[in-house]
Every structure is written in structure tokens, then in C-alpha cells.
């Protein structure tokens, strides 16, 4: 029996090889008490046609890996998806992906299979992760008939948890980058944004260890506690 529940009904047209690759994708790893520096994380950033999570599409995926407490520059993922009907918009002008580049991109099913094989069983990190999670989940469902089950951690939620003295509560990535004094040479590009998010995450994990939060299980417990406090306010 498959380790995943596939969507039923009229699904995407996949080749036999694509079906086999989909079937072979790794299930997400269960959380444990291993120290954070022993975990592998995939840090993700998506570029999309806009911000509507029901209508807009993923244009590009950028990702880097944090492994053994450091960014592994030998493991990076960058891909532009083939969207032949894509037209430039105010949103896409920001990240600079031209319609011609999208038209030459990788067919979505292939690109998403490549990415999920890159992810393996690892949890994912993103800044304002709900957007990336929902956009990726919808793309996987539409292109592969695949239900995303991997756990996302939101760096925008982790940062105020570990930096209670900071005045930034609902800040964007640029504000937290400035707070930590990180040097950023490029932004609004999927790979560049994934890299700076990974750099920020490593600084936050260092703070977490000093605060006695040194496993995914404990980090999740602390985040859940923070959410309960916020909902009670």
C-alpha cells in the first residue's frame, strides 16, 4: 500500500515514469529530540504570479539546505516552471522573471517531482511559511495529484519567539535581516531569499540553543504555547 493518500477523481495526466517517481517520494520524517544542529532542513522560497493563494501560480522555486548546523552550498535547488500563458504583472516585475523565461521553464510536474526528491523527508523552513506551504500544496495537488504532508516552520513566527526583546512583532524579512545585521546583496529572487532566510534561521537556532530549545519537538511546543498566548489576548 502507498505511504501517501493520492487525490482521487480526474487527476493530472502523468507518465508512467512520473507516477513511479511520485510513488517513491519520501514520507516526512517524524519529529524527535535530536539537537537542532543535527537536523536537515530545506529552506524554501517561491516566486508566484501574485499573492492570491487560490488563483495565482508558482513561477519559480529556490531552496537551500541547512545540515549539521550550517548551510550546505553543495545542496541547492533553483528552477523556473513552464507557464506558457504567463504575462508580466506588478508582482512579477518585482522578482524580475520575464514571461520568456517562464515559457522556457521546466514542465511543472517534472519541476515539482525534482523539488520533492530534493526535499526528501526533511521539514521545511520559510519566511511567512503559510503562503509558501499553501502555494506549494496547491501546485503539487494540481500537477501531481500529491498531498503535501511535510511540516513547515515559519521563520517569521520563530523570530519573535526567540527575540522577545525586539520591537519587531509582525515584521517582514527585511526588518529581521536588519535586526541581525545580515549583509544581503540580492532580494526578491527565490534562491537569494531562500539563502538569506537560511542565514537568519541559523542565527535564530543559535539563540534557541542558548534558551534551552534544542530540538524540533521542543521548538514546536514553544511555538504552540506562543500561539495559545496570542489567541488568549
Structure description:
The protein has helices at 16-24, 90-95, 99-103, 108-119, 129-144, 155-162, 173-179, 190-210, 216-232; strands at 40-48, 58-67, 70-80, 124-126, 152-154. The chain has a single domain (32-230), classed as 2-Layer Sandwich (Nucleotidyltransferase, domain 5), CATH 3.30.420.10. A five-stranded mixed sheet has the order 3-2-1-4-5, sandwiched between helices. The protein contains nine helices and five strands, in the order H-E-E-E-H-H-H-E-H-E-H-H-H-H. It is 43% helix and 15% strand. The longest helix has 21 residues, at 190-210. It has 233 residues and is α/β, with parallel strands linked by helices. Helix 4 (108-119) packs across helix 5 (129-144) and helix 6 (155-162) packs parallel to helix 8 (190-210). It starts with 15 loop residues before the first helix and ends with a helix. It comes from Ectopseudomonas toyotomiensis. This is DNA-directed DNA polymerase.
Q: What is the topology, as strand order, of the major beta sheet?
A: 3-2-1-4-5
The gyration radius over C-alpha positions equals: 18 Å
Summarize model confidence as the mean pLDDT.
88
Shape: globular
Give the second-level CATH assignment, the architecture: 2-Layer Sandwich
Give the number of DSSP strands: 5
Separation, N- and C-terminal Cα atoms: 45 Å
The low-confidence runs, each spanning 5 or more residues with pLDDT under 50, are none
Percentage of residues in DSSP E strands: 15-25%
In sequence order, what are the helices and strands, one letter per element? HEEEHHHEHEHHHH
What is the CATH topology descriptor? Nucleotidyltransferase, domain 5
Number of helices: 9
Largest sheet, in brief, is: 5 strands, mixed
What number of domains? 1
CATH uppermost class: Alpha Beta
The CATH superfamily is known as Ribonuclease H-like superfamily/Ribonuclease H
Amino acid at each position: 500500500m502507498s505511504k501517501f493518500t493520492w487525490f482521487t477523481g480526474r487527476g493530472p495526466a502523468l507518465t508512467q515514469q512520473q507516477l513511479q517517481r511520485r510513488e517513491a517520494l519520501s514520507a516526512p520524517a517524524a519529529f524527535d529530540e535530536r539537537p537542532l544542529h543535527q537536523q536537515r532542513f530545506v529552506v524554501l522560497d517561491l516566486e508566484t504570479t501574485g499573492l492570491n493563494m487560490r488563483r495565482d501560480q508558482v513561477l519559480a522555486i529556490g531552496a537551500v539546505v541547512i545540515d549539521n548546523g550550517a548551510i550546505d552550498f553543495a545542496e541547492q535547488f533553483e528552477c523556473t516552471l513552464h507557464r506558457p500563458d504567463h504575462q508580466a504583472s506588478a508582482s512579477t516585475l518585482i522578482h524580475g522573471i520575464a514571461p520568456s523565461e517562464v515559457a522556457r521553464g521546466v514542465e511543472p510536474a517534472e519541476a515539482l517531482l525534482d523539488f520533492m526528491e530534493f526535499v526528501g523527508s526533511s521539514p521545511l523552513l520559510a519566511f511567512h511559511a503559510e503562503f509558501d506551504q499553501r502555494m506549494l500544496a496547491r501546485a503539487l495537488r494540481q500537477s501531481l495529484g500529491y498531498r503535501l504532508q511535510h511540516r513547515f516552520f515559519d521563520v517569521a513566527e520563530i523570530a519573535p519567539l526567540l527575540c522577545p526583546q525586539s520591537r519587531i512583532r509582525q515584521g517582514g524579512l527585511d526588518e529581521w535581516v536588519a535586526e541581525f545585521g545580515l549583509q544581503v546583496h540580492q532580494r526578491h529572487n527565490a534562491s537569494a531569499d531562500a539563502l538569506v532566510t537560511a542565514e537568519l534561521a541559523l542565527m535564530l537556532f543559535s539563540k534557541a540553543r542558548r534558551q534551552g530549545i534544542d530540538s524540533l519537538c521542543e521548538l514546536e511546543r514553544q511555538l504552540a504555547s506562543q500561539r495559545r498566548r496570542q489567541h488568549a489576548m
